[in-house]
Amino acid sequence: MESSKKTTSPVAGQTILLVEDEISVRNVLQTRLTKEGFTVFPAGNGREGLALAEAKKPDLVLLDIVMPEMDGMTMLRQMRQTDWGKNMKVVMLTNLADADRAAEAGREGVYDFLIKSNWQLWQLVALIKKKLQNKA
Ligand SMILES: [Mg+2]
Description:
single chain, Rossmann fold, about 40% helix
């Protein structure tokens, strides 16, 4: 996109796809991110998430790993095989440090993991903003 600085909020108009099966977590994240000015598309599993990712082409995907119907790693792999999803920005949400999954996500170009018990909302927001400001 253009490199000029905007006078409006840096997040204005930016969209986040939030794929998380735990309703309480999803609601907290959606409320906070909406307050920050993002447009949030919620999904409850990887299958819904994949369809929404293709339909909405969000600026960033927040992706839980353990979910019913389709887990986050499967959704990520399928996204990466598409033209629209191969370079999409993704932050994985996880419940525990998992070296195997981290390595697998790394092969799909995802290096940002947030371990749910370890972060606070402001840290998540800061990471999202930083990722959205980077080109690539
Ligand atoms: Mg889950």
